[in-house]
Design brief:
The chain has two domains: 103 residues, Rossmann fold, CATH 3.40.50; 123 residues, Rossmann fold (3-Layer(aba) Sandwich). 35% of the residues lie in helices and 21% in strands. The protein has eight helices and ten strands.
């Protein structure tokens, strides 16, 4: 029997609609055995107005019953609720998720934007880089279905940590597709024609057919977004180099532009696990 998943769901109590929890509940119904859920209630002070005059910072027991307890009970899931008062939003999530033994973290990503500007507060980007398990960014209007999974890799890179990241992305993507009974695709973007990734090697490495292996020239965010739309992907898996490499000292760059360009749920994997 497969190991039980432990899903860590981050809830922002100032919002009336909890899309991450909704998606976790839908996902749970597709999984055997049913996962254990930890609902982590916390406010990111970098993104939320904590002025005492903001009515959304006050929640009573009825809100918790309607928004959290009731849907989890109706789904028949084993769950726990944690509430954090820490002003270190990212740090408290990391500590609690590790203690819980989370196999995935689900969090609201917000609405997609068309510009190339960064969309995350620094605290959220740090979470993506340093999480001990994949982080699923849930879009407000994304489809809940899981019929087509797209994994984005960089096979022309020769650095060991990038090769490790590629393998992590593919492993997570294949497992996700298998658990949902979904069609699995891989995309590899490239800019320089002299660094054209070997499509045959990629197909052989993944075991996928040529039709499910997409190698296209262009900027990474544009290629991934284009392919995702072409195959009608429901989930896109991307990577970040985590605590090593450039992403430790610089914001998300390519990864954040990719997330901005997509209107589906995104799974972020790093090279540390």
């Amino acid at each position: 029997m497969p190991n039980q998943e432990k899903i860590f769901v981050v809830v922002n109590p100032t919002l009336d609609k909890q899309v991450a929890l909704e998606r976790a509940l839908i996902t749970s119904q597709l999984m055997t055995p049913k996962p254990e859920i930890c609902v982590f209630v916390a406010v990111d002070s970098n993104t939320v107005n904590l002025d005492a005059r903001n009515p959304n910072i006050y929640r009573d027991t009825d809100w918790f019953e309607q928004q959290i307890h009731r849907p989890l009970k109706q789904a028949g899931l084993n769950y726990r609720i944690e509430i954090s008062w820490s002003n270190d939003w990212q740090g408290s999530i990391m500590a609690s998720a590790k203690q819980f033994g989370a196999t995935r973290i689900m969090i609201r990503a917000g609405k997609p934007i068309k510009s190339k500007r960064f969309i995350f507060a620094e605290s959220k980007w740090e979470l993506l880089k340093e999480a001990v398990c994949p982080v699923i960014l849930v879009r407000d209007e994304a489809k809940p279905q899981r019929k087509v999974i797209l994994a984005a890799v960089n096979f022309q890179a020769s650095r060991i940590n990038q090769e490790t990241l590629n393998n992590n992305i593919l492993e997570r993507g294949m497992n996700l597709a298998k658990s949902y009974g979904a069609d699995f695709h891989v995309v590899n973007a490239y800019i320089d024609s002299l660094l054209y990734p070997d499509r045959g090697r990629l197909a052989k490495h993944t075991g996928l057919s040529q039709s499910n292996t997409h190698v296209e020239q262009g900027y990474t965010d544009e290629v991934i977004s284009r392919v995702a739309k072409k195959i009608d992907a429901d989930v896109v898996i991307i990577g970040t180099l985590g605590q090593t490499g450039l992403t430790k000292t610089r914001r998300g760059n390519t990864a954040e532009r990719v997330i901005s360009a997509l209107d589906v749920d995104v799974v972020v994997v790093n090279s540390e696990y």
